[in-house]
Amino acid sequence: MRTVTEFPHEVIEEGELTVPVSDGVHLAARVWRPAGSGTDPVPALLEFIPYRQRDLTALRDSSMHPYLAGHGYACARVDLRGSGDSEGVLQDEYLERELRDAEEVLEWLASRPWCNGTTGMMGISWGGFNALQVAARRPRSLGAVVTLCSTDDRYADDVHYMGGCLLGDNLSWASTMFAYTSCPPDPAAVGPGWRDLWRDRLEGSGLWLDTWLRHQRRDAYWRHGSVCEDLSAIRVPVMAVSGWADGYSNAVFRLMEGLAVPRIGLIGPWSHKYPQVGRPGPAIGFLQHCVRFWDRWLKGADNGIDAEPVLRSWMQESMPPSTAYTERPGRWVGEQEWPSPKIVHEERPLGLHRIGEPGEPVRPDTASVRSPLTVGQYAGKWCSYNAPPDLPYDQREDDGGSLVFDTPPLEERVEIHGAPVLNLEFTVDRPVAMAAVRLSDVARDGRATRVTYGLLNLTHATGHDDPRPLEPGRRYRVAVPMNGVAQAFPPGHRIRVSVSTSYWPLAWPPPEPVVLTALLEGGTSLVLPIRPEGTGVEPRPFAEPEGAPPVETEQVVPGEGRWELSRDLVDYWSSLRVVKDLGTVRFPDTGWEVSRHAWEEYCSQGEDFSSPVGRTEWRMGFARGGWQVRTVTRTELSATPEEFRLNATLDAYEDGARVAAKTWNTTIPRDLV
Fold first, then answer.
1. Residue finishing a domain among 316, 335, 354
2. pLDDT tens digits, 486-498
3. Could you give the CA distance from residue 366 to residue 376 in angstroms, rounded to a whole number?
4. In this structure, what are the phi and psi dihedrals at residue 598, rounded to the nearest 5 degrees?
5. Statement to judge: residues 353 and 319 lie in one domain
């Protein structure tokens, strides 16, 4: 990314601001704005997240927000209550109080003398979620939103559940927030009351995983904050952004289809990162793109951005399987409307071990599978957080425990754009079962690169709000949608569909082994969204990525990232261990040092479906001079066929003395999961 030091406007920064909200809590804020905005007010942009603007996001914030400020906007980065240097306690995601806080912060921004009364919201992940949620509440000043790596559906398409299956990332993400909500504010920023604020967090934040596990179906808890419940409530322009390596690309397709406002969709090859630093590359000049969007919808500039394709996607070329990519070869393709009427949904019947041609008659047959627990160890993360190696590896080992269907070698290039779907007619021999469906690009030498995948808890066949036990031996028919993608398959390669009955640790396995029998009588088929050659439009090219000079940091202790798979052929234990270590980073301007070390482990033994267990540990540390505090949070999740078992501990230390200790031990009934 090119560092820019000269902007159309001189930028001033105001740190350690506080924003009062109606219940008396004060939220920590930092503002970058044009120097002349005191006499010539400008629109204000809000990013409202819990990731600590003074340290954990300081590097990213310093590159992004001053850049936008230099192009004529007042940019506010505000910590949610109970996070960073804000007062209060953070008890869960997207609570009513959080959304009210956001509305009040927008009102505060709009009333500043340097703001012209117009505001926008932007953010990635949590900040993308609440930008959409606040837009649906229609605060008076809000004129547009930019949402990245977020979703409109908190149950069916989020980090917690996918297709009614409990995701391993539910534990991983809960453990992340368990650690973050236990961190103290900076005494230099909040003063001598910092211990009281920290104590409130340690006592009141709670164990969110317990809450999430008590809502295993789509209920009112998940409908709150799911803007898909009423997309018509959003009446301001929206830019929705994600990447194929991210977990949230599907929301871009749905928002482009369902919103009735000016909208722009953008999906690149990236992981869970802003596109100006996106990996796998190529990264793009996303901040310049944002300036054009804000100029059009907050300043009324006639710059033509609203005449560009409604959806721009990176059409990925074939690549050998790898757990990390620096770049994904491909090209940008544009669609003037979505769904595109030019995309052909081609249905191909599945026969025994093969994918037939459209309309081809299939000989009646059956194929059965009972997948081992080790299927899924090469799946990578549900969402790549650009913490490689976390992408799926060669699928042949996972395919060994799956039903596999291949096309013949392709005679010509095939491009798909959208969500492939597997129509599956089946029987099972147990009342609770899942189907994990993967679409792969199989090279001439047999290497299989996963292109996309989908999960379905088969007890949710008639809906996520009313799951029902399956009747062993009864014939069912379901559609299993896979994540949307843009992918090219070259001549000579084969397209593969694989179906398994477990996919651990990406998803929690069913209570007991299941035999699934696919009925291959014409009703089991693969639907591919074919993008014919020469369709769509050629989108405007993106500029090279730019950003403002980042804040100075010093790497005091190096970090590391590691993924380790192991199998014990005596006791048959299999294990995936993930290490995510930031090391220790020092901020010379404040003397603040931050340490972060996390590991996750996912284990199972042989064919014992009661053996899977996930364990995490986070160690967070903060220091200045000779003073230091640290927290250690541990979480363990296991299950029997009847219940989940959750154990967690929290320990906090100041200058080596333990100042807080908490323990949780609880069980939660399984609800057809």
1. 335
2. 999 999 999 999 9
3. 24
4. -140, 145
5. no
